[in-house]
Amino acid sequence: MNWLLDLMLVLLLAMPLLSGVVLVLLPDLTKSMVRVFSLLATLATFVLSLIGACFFDWSNPAALSFVKSVEWVGAFGLQFGFGVNAISMWLVLLTTFLMPLVVLGSFSAIQDRVKEFFLWLLILESAMLGVFVATDIVFFHICFEFTLIPLYFLIGIYGSAQRLKAARVFFLYTFTGSMLTFSGLLYVAWRCDWVFSIATLYELAPQRLSEIEQAWVMGAMLAGFAVKVPLFPLHTWLPLAHTEAPTAGSVILAGVLLKLGTYALLQLAIPIAPIAADQFAPIIGLLAVVGILYAALICWVQKDIKKLIAYSSVSHLGFCVLGMFAFNAEGMAGSVMYMINHGLSTGALFLCVGMIYERFHTRQMSQMQGLAQIMPVWSFFMVFFCLASVGLPGLNGFVGEFLTLLGAFRAKYVLGPPYAVMAGFGLIFAAIYILFMVGKVVFGPLKVPRVENGHCLSCDLNLREIVTLTPLAAGCLWLGLQPSFILDTLTEPLEKIVEHLPQRTAVAHYTVDYPRIEVRMHMPMAQATKHAGL
Amino acid sequence: MTESVILEKLATLWPEIIMISGACICMVVGLSPKQAVRRSVVWITGLALAVAGLLLVAPHFGWWAGETSGGAAGLATAMFVRLSVILLGLLLWLTSWGVPDLLPATQVAEAAAAQGRPFNPSMVCRGEYFAFFLFSLTGAMLCASANDLVWLFLALELTSLPTYIMVATGRNHMAAQEAGLKYFFLGALSVAIFLYGFSLVYGATGTTVIVSTQLQPVSIAGYVAGLQGEFPPLLATGLLLSLVGLAFKIAAFPMHFYVADVYQGAATPVTALLAFVPKMAGFVSIMLLLSVIGWPLPVPVMWVLWIMAAVTMTVGNVLGLLQNNVKRVLAYSSIAHSGYLLVGIVAGPTTSAGTLGQGLAAVLFYIVVYGLATIGAFSVLGCLRVNGEEAQTYDEISGLSRRYPGLALLMLISILSLIGLPPLAGFVGKVYLFGSAISGSFIGLMVVAAINTAVSAVYYLRIIGACYFGESRIKIELVATRAGRLSAGLAAIAVLVLGFRGGWLVEATREATRSVSVVDVDTQPQVAAPDHLSSE
Question: A308, CA 20 to 30 Å: which among A207, A375, A513, B301?
Fold first, then answer.
């Protein structure tokens, strides 16, 4: 068992990649064999990550577990450093949890070049996991960049009409940003005598970098990470990529890839350039608020369901960034919660839209109405995930939204009530545009688009599709009722991140104010009392 | 120079002597009336390369007590350059395997011979092709061992002259003839410029010896060291003119105009050779020349190179965006990569802690990695034919992955490495170069390079996009040459391996350039300026 724990993260990264290699080497597989094989591979990765979660040192969530380093270019001091803290552990779990569902969801949608499709999916999973487990900035950057290649192919080969443009725009936008980020990271490493370990940089970088330098470094990092998030003026690649990507691509984009940006802001940008983070917070907060409102207004006028959900991601990620730059316990923990929640609910929404597209070959709202009459099961899931997405209390979206707004409201120096109030309007808009869409598509008199080959005109979700959506629905419900399960583990790692922030910002006594929220959410008494004791 | 000195020097050049001999044999054997004998030139070429390589490494392993030549750049640099030229030369040899046989003139002559008519040797250029191939490689190797401006000049010309002919040889395209002529005239212009530069340097210093460990004979490095940082205008002009002339060899601004036309006009394997061999020779020569003034470079020279680097990469990448022909795209990418390489030259060896601050080592590493990737890409292109012509445009390679998934994959790996995407070797090279730029505090230049890398992704992605997303409307054929595919495969494997396990090559480049930095840091103060010069 010891060797397993020692190599846990290496195995986790290698599992999808090796499965991909096996997939290529096995000759003469039928399409369904390829699909089942990929499903098993992603499931195995999920099981492995669950084992990892069991053996993770939850009593010390800020420390890195499963630390391992593999030499790479020793002459530069470069290595593949592996390790996870609680934040990364949760995001690893989110990734491995989503992947089998994504694979399951693309069983029938992909009929051409099947093997290649699942190969790219598996490679993509490895790359995404790599970002979360990297403890070395160059290794981090490698994985961050490498996610582009599989997704470029997934969009470019399997996307819809404008796929080539979408793939190109997506790649170039993100690549340009991350080249600047890379320059910034190298600069930081140089100033710290070519140290690449993230943990060491947490200590050294804030001391070595002057205020001006920190501002430049922060700017460089924002160039890459804000594109990925995406923050307001840099979001224009996202709707195109989301809309043109195949369902699997959209789910992964919304579910995990956007989180790479917020995760990087949280784990790299803020601790490495704390003074700059403090100074930039009002601007970033403003951009986040503008993004929330602007994207929500755009959602309102969308005619294409997928595009609507894509723009809603821009709006939602605004909350995530807003909470993060409040620099208090509520805001930052809420931001991490938001990453996980958004991955579940928006991922699920994209799956739902994909299922509609498979049946009717259109996503135009004007062409369909009253689908509840012929597709009750689908309608149930659709409404459920929409409610989760707009933040109905009791479902997961609420926790993140509430905590990020609370954080922004309570932040004493950086953000403040105006930000929270403005962002609060975003919630209202969200309810309007989502319910508008649900009302139009799910309810009302029946109207079904003409389908040429006439298949599936009236059929509801099949068993496979129900199996795909159920775990996501369960996850939404569970995290809505029991957020403390995750929130409790976030305090210590977050404290470590804000450690070097200027004193006026970082509250010395870093209390966590969750109990009140949780009691309201009908926490089991035992746990509620435990928290009250904090 | 006495006779014994020349003999001593010659004794260190066995690998080059073997290669020149091989080239001469190729010339003669290629004219043989017997077909089997004629065809053996390929093997003779390979044999010459292999033997030269073995002779080069033999003293290192103790198999043979021969000496190896150092020259001004130092023993290790020369060794590194010569060895990498031979190894990449072997790849280029594989790429060029069937080239002379495919040339129209050769096919006419061979067809006539097959019908029983007498063989007409003047029609066939098989022997010449491989002879010139070997001459060019030898020239690049000799550059590294140069310790004299005259030697350096001759070595550079030995690198370039054969390529002028290879571009045009045996091809009845107007484009090829135009390319050959253009290349020749512009090459002659560049030679005139740097020869003039060399003569000014000689005029200023009174010697052609670059570095010398003794006070007599006097050396340029010794003269510069005696100046205490003051540069006579004559010397500075000479050095700058030499740099401008050498810019032709490395395809850098302001001497980059020929590149696209020549790369397009030449047969694809020849283009692969043009992309690597003259570039290697040019960069080694630049390192040699600059080592006499040492790093950090004096301000005017530094700024000239800074601007040259920035403009070169920007011009290459921006013009690359406008092309429809993959060979022209790769030509502009070659210009852009020269720009990145110049960043390493500007930074030079710095005193920063850690390995990353070694600009010259980064240049050596990057040029090898660039050579591998670009040879891989050109080898794939060289395997493809459309209607009997080389596949050149995006449309012609469109849908490659459906017809030849293996070749498309090799193209993908090469192109990704050229973009500098991790975890391929190109990325390690970029880290090395950017790291040296930061260590030398050339942050601005590094940012320019980073933005350029992003711009370059646009046209590289079009190549990948054409291969993988396009529909094949035109019928692509595969030329029956396994060697070309083998070459592309080996290059791709090397790029992958160097990406994951490139540490040893990094160490090797560091070892190779250690002596260069020693030349200017340690020996400078000890060598005084000769009296008769300072009194003039």
Answer: A375
B355 with A138: Cβ contact below 8 A: no
State the pTM of this model: 0.85
Binary contact (B469, A74; C-beta < 8 A)? no
Asked whether A75 and B507 are in contact (CB, 8 A), the reply is yes
B324 min Cα distance to partner chain A (Å): 17
Pick from A74, A168, A179: which is nearest to B450 by CB? Answer: A179
Size of interface A-B (CB pairs under 8 A): 96
Q: For residue A391, what is the enclosing H or E element?
A: none
Q: What is the ipTM of this complex?
A: 0.80
User: Which region holds residue B420: left if phi is over 0, alpha if psi is between -120 and 50, else beta?
Assistant: left
Chain B residues within 8 Å of chain A (Cβ atoms): 352-356, 416, 421-423, 427-428, 431-432, 434-435, 438-439, 443, 446-447, 450-451, 453-454, 457-458, 461, 465, 468-469, 500, 502-503, 506-507, 510
User: From CA A356, how far away is CA A362, in angstroms rounded?
Assistant: 8
Q: What is the pLDDT of residues A343-390, one digit of tens each?
A: 999 999 999 998 888 888 888 888 888 888 888 888 999 999 999 988
Q: What string of DSSP letters covers B158-226?
A: HHHHHHHHHHHTT---HHHHHHHHHHHHHHHHHHHHHHHHHHHHHHHHS--B---SSSSS--HHHHHHT
Q: Is the peptide bond before A230 cis (omega within 30 degrees of 0)?
A: yes
pLDDT digits (tens, 9 = 90+) for B485-531: 888 899 999 999 988 888 888 888 887 777 665 434 333 333 333 44
Out of A75, A164, A186, closest to residue B507 by CB? A75
Domain spans, chain B: 12-527
